[in-house]
Design brief:
The complex is a heterotrimer. The longest helix of chain A has 17 residues. Chain A is an alpha/beta fold. Chain A has a 6-stranded mixed beta sheet with strand order 6-7-8-3-9-10, sandwiched between helices. Chain A has a 4-stranded antiparallel beta sheet with strand order 2-1-4-5, with helices on one face. Chain B has one domain: Four Helix Bundle (Hemerythrin (Met), subunit A). Chain B is flat. In chain B, 44% of the residues are buried. Chain B contains 7 helices and no strands. Chain C has one domain. Chain C contains 9 helices and no strands. The radius of gyration of chain C is 18 Å and the shape is globular. Classes of the chains: A alpha/beta, B mainly alpha, C mainly alpha. Chains in contact: A-B, A-C, B-C. At the A-B interface, strand 1, strand 2, strand 10 and helix 7 of A face helix 7 of B.
Chain lengths: 234, 242, 221
């Protein structure tokens, strides 16, 4: 249709859990090479949105299109709250299984670069049950990178990571964008993300209440906070 | 795959069900009268055999109810239409109720005839297995709160449980080759056939009425569970848009 | 096919790493065999006749433990969702897992078999046939067992729901496997064991495709 196809485009997404609505009529559109930050308080629907965009949750209404075709699982890599790993296996084994499932070469020498890239190079032979929460996060990140997907969805990317880990995320986002991939990050760390993303979407109670340039996100977030304080006070 | 919204409760279906219920009760009254007083007592079993006039129609209708549950489950998986979920719920409940009655009636009939409450006859045993299987499905429905998961999972469980029924039947039959031959209307007196048929149809009407009414009740619950999202709270929306 | 092999390999590796758990399940099965004989009393003749039945009841009860465990590992960190997100077809996940569970239950059966032989002293002439029946029967437990374990692992009351849904479904497996095993151990003058084995084969033939077809509905959210 227009100049470039949207990397990911969602229209009218609605998702409910039982009787509560986690998402109501959310639209979004990201072009390849863009980074979008989805902000909002706890329970505002950020994680649900990412899981819907990944194809992990089926929306009750609405549609997700990925590079112009309807969403198929496997096209968007998700780094979520769950690590998707087996605690009984080592980090290396977890990645090798993912590689086999993806039909990629799964020899140790092919897997090692992914471990190195997320800073787990020396710990690949340890079982995941011995990993700290931050190390698990890194392992999941390695797994998502291996997926080589046009869209990456990072849920609370800084959560559980140490300061070098923060730098790793910032660097990865830049690299992925340079490769022409779209990145969606969900977080309430608005200050830091507003610096590395182009655009922002603010969710509240499952609805998109604001969207605009990422640089203005901190102000929008503050206004939302004030509005809700007024609503509680009044 | 878009999911349709909740089906509305249909007053026409409720009226139809009430008419069917009336017809069914009328037919059952005639059938029971004939079965108890008009039909001749059976040659070998005597008066006890009169339980056949409820037992055999119960068996047919139990099978029908569970078959309808199976069809509803397939239809739900195929079409994703909530009306089939409501029908599934109604049909499984009625199937369980009728299978339970069937086992009780079987035991009541077996005691004076064979001298035991329970006989490992293939039909009786299959009914008991079906009863347990579908009670499990009802339990599943009660244990899952999310309406979509409840609908999909109970449909899946219904499909595979129903698929196993013929295999259960044949395996029990081989397992215990000493059993009664199937009684079909051809092997019994025509004075017995008439009340049997009337009762079977009477019970069918009652079954249709109950399934319809129960599925309308299920629709009412679904309508609450699948209500559209509430309107946006204006204070927050306005705060964001400024 | 490649994904099935990968999923199967993954489940085998997990089964091997968790072999302490597997051994505990086998010990549970052996304990059941011992306990079931107390229900009959020290009547050697009767115990010999019931041995085949006891073996399968012990196997059935132990199988729910093994099946539950195999999905506990998947649920722990939502690994199954992770596999779906890699674009793996649900049927591949199912067949990988059902094959691994089959192997696991078959090995469990092989471990329980000598226990049963020692406790109940059946004749050993038909033991080769019994191993064949074990393979067919555990296949009949594993396909519907994997489907229902996947389903019940996502509910409250998982421990009750799995047997409640699975046991009625596998009645034909139980009947056929027990009859075939008993005939092979006690003598089979009419050659009936063969037709029971065919019934098991038919059950497997119906449920392996059917459960694979339905598994996607159960694990997709």
């Amino acid at each position: 249709m227009n100049e470039t196809k949207a990397a990911i485009e969602a229209r009218g997404l609605c998702k409910r859990y039982g009787r509560t609505w986690a998402l109501v009529d959310v639209d979004l559109c990201i072009r390849p090479g863009e980074a979008l930050v989805v902000a909002g308080r706890n329970g505002s629907g950020k994680s649900t949105l990412l899981r819907v965009l990944a194809g992990s949750l089926r929306p009750d209404r609405g549609e997700v299109r990925l590079l112009g075709t309807s969403l198929r699982r496997g096209r968007a890599a998700l780094v979520g709250h769950a690590s998707f790993t087996y605690d009984l296996l080592t980090g290396m084994e977890n990645l090798r299984i993912a590689a086999r499932l993806l039909g990629r070469p799964s020899g140790p020498e092919e897997i090692q670069p992914f471990l190195d890239r997320v800073g787990l190079g020396a710990r690949g032979a340890d079982r995941v049950q011995a990993y700290s929460a931050g190390m698990r996060k890194r392992l999941t990140l390695a797994r998502a990178l291996m997926q080589d997907a046009p869209v990456l969805l990072l849920d609370e990317p800084y959560g559980q990571l140490d300061p070098p880990g923060f730098g790793l995320i910032d660097r990865l986002v830049d690299e992925l964008r340079a490769e022409g991939r779209a990145v969606v990050l969900a977080s309430h760390q608005v200050e830091r993300l507003s610096r590395i993303c182009d655009r922002a979407l603010l969710l509240d109670a499952g609805r998109a209440v604001w969207s605009g340039p990422a640089s203005e996100l901190p102000f929008a977030f503050q206004r939302l906070e004030e509005a809700s304080i007024r609503a509680v006070a009044g | 795959m878009e999911i349709a919204s909740a089906p509305p409760v249909s007053p026409r279906a409720v009226r139809g069900a009430l008419v069917a219920l009336g017809v069914g009760i009328l037919l059952l009254a005639v059938g029971w009268y004939q079965g108890l007083f008009v039909a001749p007592p059976e040659h070998y079993m005597g008066e006890v055999q009169r339980i056949m006039y409820v037992h055999v129609p119960t068996a047919w209708n139990a099978m029908l109810a569970l078959s309808f549950a199976f069809l509803s489950a397939l239809a739900f998986l195929w079409k994703n239409d909530w009306r089939w979920d409501a029908r599934l719920e109604a049909a499984v409940e009625m199937g369980v109720l009728l299978s339970f009655l069937l086992c009780v009636q079987g035991a009541i009939w077996a005691k004076p005839t064979w001298g035991v409450w329970w006989d490992w006859d293939p039909r009786l045993t299959t009914t008991a297995v079906m009863l347990v299987a579908f009670v499990g499905i009802l339990a599943l429905r009660h244990l899952v709160d999310d309406p979509r998961k409840r609908a999909v999972w109970s449909s899946v469980a219904t499909v595979i449980s129903y698929a196993s029924v013929p295999i259960v039947y044949f395996s029990v039959r081989w397992w215990n080759s000493l059993h009664q031959v199937q009684s079909t209307p051809q092997t019994v007196d025509s004075a017995m056939v008439t009340p049997l048929r009337i009762n079977a149809f009477g019970m069918l009407f009652v079954l249709i009425a109950f399934v319809t009414l129960r599925s309308q009740i299920a629709r009412r619950r679904l309508a609450a569970e699948l209500a559209p999202p509430p309107a946006a709270s204006t204070a927050l929306a306005a705060g964001g848009e400024r | 096919m490649r994904a099935v092999a990968a999923a199967f390999y993954k489940d085998l590796l997990l089964g091997w790493r968790g072999r302490a758990q597997g051994m505990a399940v086998a010990v549970f099965g052996a304990t059941l065999l011992l306990l079931l004989s107390f229900a009959v009393g020290p009547n050697a003749q009767m115990l010999r006749q019931l041995g085949g039945g006891f073996l399968w009841v012990a196997l059935l009860f132990s199988s729910t433990l093994a099946l539950t465990e195999s999905f506990r590992l998947e649920r722990e960190n939502r690994a199954i969702e992770g596999m779906l997100l890699l674009g793996v077809h649900p049927a591949a996940i199912f067949y990988g897992k059902a094959l691994a569970n089959w192997l696991q239950l078959f090995v469990l059966g092989l471990l329980l078999l000598p226990v049963m032989v020692v406790l109940y002293d059946p004749s050993l002439d038909g033991i080769g046939g019994v191993i064949g029946v074990l393979a067919l029967g555990t296949a009949g437990l594993s396909a519907p067992g994997t489907l229902h374990a996947g389903l019940s692992s996502q509910t409250r009351a998982q421990q009750v729901l799995l047997p409640l849904l699975l046991f009625p479904l596998v009645v034909p497996v139980l009947i056929a496997a027990v009859r075939a095993t008993s005939l092979l151990l006690l003598g089979d003058p009419m050659g009936q064991a063969r037709s029971w084995a065919l019934l098991l084969l038919a059950f497997d033939g119906v449920f392996w495709p059917l459960c694979g077809l339905l598994f996607g509905h159960v694990i997709e959210e």
